[in-house]
Every structure is written in structure tokens, then in C-alpha cells.
Design goal:
Blueprint: E1 4-8, H1 10-15, H2 31-36, E2 41-47, H3 54-73, E3 79-81, H4 85-93, E4 97-104, H5 113-121, E5 124-128, H6 153-165, E6 168-170, H7 176-185, E7 191-192, H8 209-217, E8 221-224, H9 228-231, H10 233-242, H11 244-257, H12 262-276, H13 284-297, E9 302-304, H14 325-333, H15 338-353
Parallel strand pairs: 1-2, 2-4, 3-4, 4-5, 5-6, 7-8, 8-9
Helix pairs in contact: 5-6, 11-12
The structure holds zinc ion.
């Protein structure tokens, strides 16, 4: 079995001076925690905020990538950069954690296919087409008013070029119309690297049953996100009633501006503690979403994409990646065969990557 987390925002945290070589009190992901959680590999997402301008977006993605290469390079005895299934299996055999690269937000390629090719050449193996706002590629699920009404003409070229390169198209974050446009355009299976089921939690970022069926019919895979807001409507309501989110955003923005300031860091940790004190859904809720995908389309199209380090609050019992194996224990408890669990743990995603 190869246990893979298809999406975490750890590069942003490395950029905020996290040392992934040691056990961090407050971080959700570092190499010792991955080891403890039985995670053999993870996609580190180069997350580019929608607020950045075009050139800034590219430069920021490159900086994050440099941070990841440096961090993994400083931990050669425990981790390795990988780009394909074979390299990941070789790393696993040597006892190393595999670090893959994904790019979260196509804004980083501006309107340039050469930049897309460069990111691929530098090791990036999937691109999330957009984040919480529309970009030159397609509409996001964030704003209620469309810009393109789905995929833009440039977006169609991007999908075709990603197919040609062998780079996975990630449909997480994009609007429903963009989603169906991508399926129509893509000659290869596509992935949702960190998305939940709308039938279980109404957030518009989640996938409807029809979308899950359409994606699976083309051979793709849905990797369930651990964010309590996407897992559970009750939590989403409690969070929005608490008012912590808006305060938290300002505190986090200060921390991001100056991550070397211990006071700003501590202020952010206090927000995280406050969020954790809300009544949170159990980690078993993640297994409910996996169950739902499996009940719709079978065990070949489900997986796990935590969104750790990009989420300020986690399910109860899944505070960080060191608890990852609990989900597999829960699936085992629910009667999944070892073969099906191996698919969900990472086999499905590696199949599509291949
Ligand atoms: Zn995301």
C-alpha cells in the first residue's frame, strides 16, 4: 500500500519559516508527523493567492517551489522529491517520504503555455486551474457572477497542453460550468485533489453526485478534503456564527507579512486554538464522504486530499497528519477490503498520475 495525501499547503508554511525536518507543535504537516501518520507521500501545493497580480503570481509560485526543493534537500535522509509513481515506489522502498509538486491556481502561468511547460519541466504534476476567484483560464466556484461562463478560450488550450504534457488537470475550486467544460475538453482522466460531496455538505466548492459520476466515468478520482466546513453543514454554520473567521483573517495576514515575529505567530496560534474549541465534526466524517463516493461510483475513484496547512481548523481526531492512519482504520472497521483500501489510500491517484 502507498498512502498518499494529494493536497497540502505546506509550501506556504515553509515560506512562513516552518522547519519540516522537526516535529512542530502547531503545524499540521512536517516529515516526522507524516512518518507517524503512515503517509508515504504528499503533493505539496504551490498555492498562489488570487489577490496577486500576474507577474507576482509567477514569482511567488517559483519562490514556493524553491522553498520546497531547499526544505526537502535539507532532509535527504527522510524525504525525496518525486514526479511519478515509479520514483515514489522507489523512495518508499528506501524508507523516504515522497514529495510531489502541484500548482494551486493557474494564475501562475499568466496567459503563457511556455510557462505551463516550464512548471511541468520543474516537476509540477498537477495544476488546480483556479482558486477562489476567476482567472484567465476559467471561472471559480467562489464568486456568484461568472466571468467566462466556464472555461475560457485560453483555458481550452491549457487543458489540451496539460493532456499532452501528462500533467493532471485538477478541478477542485472551479465552478460547476468550468467543471463540465473541462470534462468535455479533456482527453485524459481528471482529478479533484481536495473536494468533498455536496450531497453531504452543501458548500458550492463541493461536488454534486452528477459531477462525481461524470468524473468517474472518464476514469478520474475524487480526493476527499478534511476541512470541517466542507465536511459538515453544522460546523459551517457554527463557524460563521462565531465570527472568528474574519478576525482570524486579519491576524493571519499580519503573520504572513512578518513570519519571523514571534508575537504575530503566537497571535495566529491563539486563533487556531479558538477555532479548535468550536464543536467540530469527528474525523469519521471524512470516511462518510469516502463512503458516499464509493456508493456512487465504486472504490476506483476515491482518495484523500487533506488540505492540511491550508485549513485553519480540522476535524476532531485529525488535528494533523500524524493521525492520518485513523481514516484507514475507520474504513477497515467499516468493512473495506485491504485491496479497496490500498486503492483509496493512494493507488487510485497514482493510477491516474501514471
Ligand atoms: Zn484549495
Amino acid at each position: 500500500m502507498f498512502v498518499l495525501d494529494s493536497h497540502c499547503d505546506t509550501p506556504s508554511q515553509i515560506h512562513r519559516l516552518r522547519n519540516i525536518g522537526i516535529w512542530n507543535g502547531h503545524g499540521q504537516v512536517d516529515l516526522p508527523k507524516m512518518k507517524k501518520g503512515g503517509v508515504d507521500g504528499a503533493f505539496f501545493a504551490l498555492y498562489v493567492p488570487s489577490s496577486l497580480g500576474p507577474e507576482e503570481s509567477t514569482a511567488y509560485a517559483m519562490e514556493l517551489m524553491a522553498d520546497v526543493y531547499d526544505a526537502v534537500g535539507a532532509n535527504r535522509d527522510s524525504a525525496a522529491m518525486v514526479t511519478c509513481r515509479q520514483e515514489a515506489l522507489e523512495a518508499q522502498a528506501k524508507g523516504l517520504v515522497s514529495i510531489f509538486l502541484g500548482l494551486e491556481n493557474g494564475a501562475a502561468i499568466q496567459t503563457s503555455l511556455p510557462l505551463l511547460r516550464l512548471f511541468h519541466r520543474l516537476g509540477v504534476r498537477y495544476m488546480t486551474l483556479t482558486h477562489s476567484d476567476h482567472n484567465d483560464i476559467c471561472d471559480s466556484s467562489g464568486p456568484s457572477q461568472p466571468r467566462w461562463g466556464g472555461l475560457s478560450p485560453f483555458g481550452r488550450e491549457v487543458v489540451a497542453e496539460m493532456n499532452r504534457l501528462g500533467m493532471l488537470v485538477d478541478v477542485s475550486h472551479i465552478s460547476d460550468r468550468s467543471f463540465y467544460d473541462v470534462l468535455e475538453c479533456s482527453a485524459k482522466p481528471v482529478v479533484a485533489t481536495h473536494s468533498c460531496c455536496r450531497a453531504l455538505a452543501g458548500h458550492r466548492r463541493n461536488l454534486t453526485d452528477d459531477m462525481i459520476k461524470a468524473l468517474a466515468s472518464q476514469g478520474g478520482v475524487v480526493q476527499i478534503n478534511f476541512y470541517p466546513v466542507f465536511l459538515d453543514d453544522g460546523f459551517a454554520a457554527r463557524l460563521s456564527a462565531s465570527g472568528i473567521e474574519s478576525v482570524g483573517e486579519a491576524v493571519e495576514a499580519e503573520f504572513i507579512k512578518d513570519p519571523s515575529d514571534p508575537q504575530k505567530r503566537e497571535a495566529w496560534y491563539r486563533i487556531e486554538d479558538e477555532l479548535a474549541s468550536l464543536a467540530r465534526p469527528s474525523y469519521r466524517r471524512i470516511a462518510d464522504h469516502v463512503d458516499h463516493v464509493v456508493s456512487l461510483v465504486g472504490p476506483d475513484h476515491a482518495g484523500l486530499g487533506s488540505d492540511f496547512d491550508g485549513i485553519s481548523v480540522t476535524p476532531d481526531g485529525m488535528e494533523d497528519v500524524s493521525h492520518f492512519s485513523r481514516i484507514l482504520d475507520e474504513l477497515r472497521h467499516r468493512g473495506y477490503s485491504e485491496g479497496d483500501m490500498a486503492k483509496i489510500a493512494g493507488g487510485n491517484f497514482l493510477r491516474v498520475l501514471g
